[in-house]
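Key result, reporting period 2: structure in, sequence out.
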């Protein structure tokens, strides 16, 4: 509070106003303070090292700062970016990806130790830095919440388990599946990153109706359809196949240069295995095995 009045009477008036605001008799609105949506901190090591355990201890100090920052702005993050500085001037960069946003310092430290144990450290490291710019408002209960319901001795939850697998095995070793709007079975899915998504916008009733209108599909598809041998025009896999359900015709793909025309059947071989087979609608009209139900 500063007084900018040009004369003594004005100064007295300003002082009275200042004291009135100090004791609460006059309103004293203040601009709201907001933390920047960016966290960046670094730590210079007391001595050079190439030991992963020493680096994890230094990294935990930065994670303690990050946890305090996230609590202060009631936020959480899904991505942590690390940098290791070597004495010769070059640096190693890596990042920690989370399945769901969090601000759990202990979980961050566990993932950091897993990653450092698999990074080949060539040379002496003099510093470690942490950079976080993917910061979002918190979306659920955390440690310290009065109403958080968690049983004592509860096992590790699914997102934390996935995070640990990805930190130990690498990003490409743990992937998810995503559906694609395409009638061709081999084009109806694709690999995706493992993230817990919320509601996609489709209601439960719409999903139920869609599931009821689509014939059963096997979870196991062949990498490439396998051509089947036939006996008297009938497909054969360790014996004559028995058709269990009516055919399903898929004829599509003409617009993108990959047309298919097939009649699909659910069939069983003599041992009782349920198979997904199809016959071409044109050309040689061969039979193929495309999937297995059991």
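The corresponding designed sequence is given below.
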């Amino acid at each position: 509070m500063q007084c900018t009045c040009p004369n003594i009477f004005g100064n007295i008036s300003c002082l009275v106003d200042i004291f009135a605001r100090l004791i609460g008799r006059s309103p004293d609105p203040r601009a709201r303070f907001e933390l920047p949506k960016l966290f960046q901190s670094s730590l210079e090591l007391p001595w050079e090292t190439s030991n992963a355990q020493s680096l994890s201890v230094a990294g935990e100090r930065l994670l303690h700062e990050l946890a305090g920052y996230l609590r202060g702005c009631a936020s959480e993050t899904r991505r942590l970016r690390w940098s290791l500085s070597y004495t010769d001037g070059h640096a190693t960069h890596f990042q920690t990806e989370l399945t769901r946003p969090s601000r759990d310092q202990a979980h961050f430290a566990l993932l950091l130790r897993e990653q450092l144990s698999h990074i080949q450290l060539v040379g002496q490291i003099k510093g470690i830095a942490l950079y976080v710019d993917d910061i979002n408002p918190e979306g659920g209960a955390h440690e310290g919440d009065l109403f958080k319901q968690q049983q004592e001795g509860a096992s590790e939850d699914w997102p934390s388990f996935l995070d640990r697998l990805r930190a130990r095995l690498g990003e490409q070793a743990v992937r998810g599946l995503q559906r694609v709007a395409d009638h061709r079975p081999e084009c109806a899915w694709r690999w995706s990153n493992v993230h817990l998504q919320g509601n996609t916008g489709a209601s439960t009733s719409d999903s139920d109706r869609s599931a009821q209108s689509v014939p059963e599909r096997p979870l196991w598809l062949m990498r490439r359809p396998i051509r089947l041998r036939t006996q008297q025009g009938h497909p054969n896999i360790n014996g004559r196949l028995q058709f269990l359900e009516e055919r399903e015709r898929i004829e599509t793909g003409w617009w993108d240069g990959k047309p298919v025309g097939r009649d699909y059947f659910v069939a069983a071989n003599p041992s009782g295995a349920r198979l997904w087979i199809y016959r071409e609608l044109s050309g040689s009209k061969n039979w193929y095995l495309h999937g297995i139900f059991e």
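The radius of gyration is 31 Å. The first helix runs from residue 8 to 22. This case is discussed further under Risks and Mitigation.
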